[in-house]
Each structure stands twice: as C-alpha cells, then as structure tokens.
Amino acid sequence: MHDLVITSRRAVLPDGERPAAVAVRDGGITGVHDPGAAPEAAERVDLGDVALLPGLVDTHVHVNEPGRTHWEGFATATRAAAAGGVTTIVDMPLNSLPPTVDPAALAAKRRAAAGRCAVDVGFWGGAVPGNLGRLRPLHEAGVRGFKCFLSPSGVEEFPPLDAAGLRAALAEAASFGGLVIVHAEAPELLTEPAGPAYPEFLASRPGEAERRAVELVIRLARETGARAHILHVSSALCLEPLARARRAGVGITAETCPHYLTLAAEQVPEGDTAFKCCPPIRSGENRDALWRGLADGVLDCVVSDHSPSAPDLKVPDFAAAWGGISSLQLGLAAVWTEASRRGHGLGDVVRWMARNPAALAGLDGKGAIAAGADADLVAFDPGASRTVDASALHHRHPVTPYHGRTLRGVVRTTWLRGRLADGTPLGRLL
C-alpha cells in the first residue's frame, strides 16, 4: 500500500508533459504510472487539469540567520518558499553573523536552522580573503560550493576577492571537485550614483562591469580547470562570452533571476527602492535578450536572489537604500506570467527553476518527478491569476516590487516528501 497517489492530466515529467499518477511511499516517488494503472494508496489526490510540477529548487536565497534575523530568518523564508512551490533552498553565506566562511560558522548556521524549516535547506560556503585553507574543510562539512564577490558585497565582514584571490579559490576548489559561484561585477567600472534617482543608480553599475568580470572568471576557470557559476546575470552583454566559453568546453554555468526577466528599468517608479538590487534591473530590450539566452541554454537557472532587509533600510533614495529584492514566494508565478506570454511551456520553467538548480548544487533526488526522487511536488494552476498583496506574503517584511501586480499561475498545494508543506517545520538540512 502506498501512502499517496497524485494524479494530474498535466504532470511535468523529465520526458515531457502528460497525464500521470505519481505514487509515493515513505517520502519518495516509487513510480510514475498511467492514471488508469495507479497502485492502491491510503490517500488519493486528483488534480484534474491543475499541473503537477516537481518542487522548485532555489539555490540563491539570503536567509540572514543568525545575526540579521530581523531581516529574514529560516522560519519565515521557508514558509514563503513552501507557499511559492519551492521545496528546497540553498542559503547564501553572507548577511548572517558570522558569515559561513569556516566550519564553525556553518555549524552555527545549522543550529539556527534546526527545527525551524518548512522546506529542505542546503548551504553555500564563502570564499573571502584569508580563508583559502578552510574551503576543503567546508566542502567536507557539506556546503554545496563557495560564493565570492569581485566587488564590495555591501557588508564589511564578507570582503571581495581580487583576481589573484579568485584564481587561488578556483584552483583550490578544483583540487577536490568543488564549485565556485561568483557575484561578477568589475569594481573598477562601478561608481557612486550621481543622485538618488533610479537612472543615476543604473548608470553607476553598467552592464560592461558584468561582462568584464565574467570574462575574468571564464579565463581563470579555463586556466585552473575549475567549475564556476555566474550569479544573477542582469546584463545581456554577458551572453556572448558565456556562449563562447561553453562551446570551448569551459566548466561554466550561469543564472538569472525573475526580476531581470519580468521587470524593466523603464517601469521602476520614482523612489520605489523595493526595485533596487545589485546588479540592477536593466532595460526592456536587455530583458528580451536575457529570455533569448535562456531559450538558447546560455543561462541555465532562474533563481530568486531573495535578499530582504528591514524596511527602514529601503529608504526612498536609490543611492542609499539596501539593494535586495524579496520574491521567494512569487518567483514561479512571475516567471510563468512572462514565459507563457513568450511561448514557453511549463517544461521550460521546470528545467530552469527545478532540474538545473538541483544539478548545479548537486542535490540528487531533487528537481524532477521520477522514481527514486524525493516526493517534492507542487500543484500549480497555470491558468489562474492573483494580484500580489505584499502584506499577505510569508517572508518577514512586506516589501516586494511585485506588490499590486497581477501574476498568472497559482500554487494550490505543495508537498515535501509526500507531506503537505503548510509551514510546519518538516524540512531537513542537506
């Protein structure tokens, strides 16, 4: 007897979208069957035309606990994730105190997260000046890879690497098969904004700064043989060097974020710093090019870069406000709204937001509906719509640039290893 069978006429499977019955026992998927041949189960759910997706995997989430839990914490972030169809997150190493730059700090993270998570949680480590010898111990302690910055991170306890430091981190990671993930903006091309308005902030972080940094990462990844990943690509100028590097066999991947795919600089309201992030939201034309990069496979993943802060840091001045967008609960609907308008299917969205992020972070058993995988599943109504009310979101502070926007696609139910993911702390630490 199985614990659960979920049937949908629109199950999004590795081999395409089709009617299927997914059988679950002891938290795992035992098989994917034709609807008429499903095994007996203690509970049966028939979704009809509501789609069944694998739980999303968001590999770019700033939880900030311990130390800045008043910005965001594991309980609130993971409740938001579950409500948005995300069943696994990977936490970034900065903005918490201490930052995750050694095994002791990772242990502190795990203690802070234990018993508080509504979804499964993995952890990135950090690569900063002076901790080269701690990368292997962090790897052995279970981090999924190492984040570094090439420009100032915004917090003094997580300083950037210069080119020599990046090369050393890549070489060290390559020695044990590790992954280095990079915030790629060339610091020499960044300036202080000339004023408080959005166009002045945008001009201070040009797309060429991203491209130059990406070219540096590509060169050093080629020289060291390391695996590298470019975080939150906002500029289409990065697509050509990334495509060329991949054709040449360099071990490099890249991601972008829902806000770069769904928002545009021309639409940013005056003084609304809920839209501020680094790198910045660029033009509508640039947004179209990012979609082409996704379609062509140059960009692999779409992840949130959920980076909340206390509301008092979002002052109405783009030069002074904290840079970070809160969208963990909204990413699936935001991306589907725009993807469906552009002719993409649910299978594309699952590839970008579940399968590829799981592969990036080495999360076996995540990101696909298949026998042997965890029964992390999402009932998603792709034809329904909902207007975003920030006050109804689960992350700690009701600040998001999507407030008041009508998004297509509604998460009806999320299951974590076959159990309802309703905010109860069922999540495991990976």
UniProtKB/TrEMBL annotation:
<comment type="pathway">
    <text>Nitrogen metabolism; (S)-allantoin degradation; allantoate from (S)-allantoin: step 1/1.</text>
</comment>
<dbReference type="Pfam" id="PF01979">
    <property type="entry name" value="Amidohydro_1"/>
</dbReference>
<keyword id="KW-0659">Purine metabolism</keyword>
<feature type="domain" description="Amidohydrolase-related">
    <location>
        <begin position="52"/>
        <end position="420"/>
    </location>
</feature>
<keyword id="KW-0479">Metal-binding</keyword>
<dbReference type="GO" id="GO:0004038">
    <property type="term" value="F:allantoinase activity"/>
</dbReference>
<dbReference type="GO" id="GO:0008270">
    <property type="term" value="F:zinc ion binding"/>
</dbReference>
<dbReference type="GO" id="GO:0006145">
    <property type="term" value="P:purine nucleobase catabolic process"/>
</dbReference>
<dbReference type="InterPro" id="IPR006680">
    <property type="entry name" value="Amidohydro-rel"/>
</dbReference>
<dbReference type="GO" id="GO:0000256">
    <property type="term" value="P:allantoin catabolic process"/>
</dbReference>
<dbReference type="GO" id="GO:0005737">
    <property type="term" value="C:cytoplasm"/>
</dbReference>
<keyword id="KW-0378">Hydrolase</keyword>
<comment type="subunit">
    <text>Homotetramer.</text>
</comment>
<dbReference type="InterPro" id="IPR032466">
    <property type="entry name" value="Metal_Hydrolase"/>
</dbReference>
<dbReference type="InterPro" id="IPR011059">
    <property type="entry name" value="Metal-dep_hydrolase_composite"/>
</dbReference>
<dbReference type="GO" id="GO:0050897">
    <property type="term" value="F:cobalt ion binding"/>
</dbReference>
<keyword id="KW-0862">Zinc</keyword>
<comment type="similarity">
    <text>Belongs to the metallo-dependent hydrolases superfamily. Allantoinase family.</text>
</comment>
<protein>
    <recommendedName>
        <fullName>allantoinase</fullName>
        <ecNumber>3.5.2.5</ecNumber>
    </recommendedName>
</protein>
<dbReference type="InterPro" id="IPR050138">
    <property type="entry name" value="DHOase/Allantoinase_Hydrolase"/>
</dbReference>
<dbReference type="InterPro" id="IPR017593">
    <property type="entry name" value="Allantoinase"/>
</dbReference>
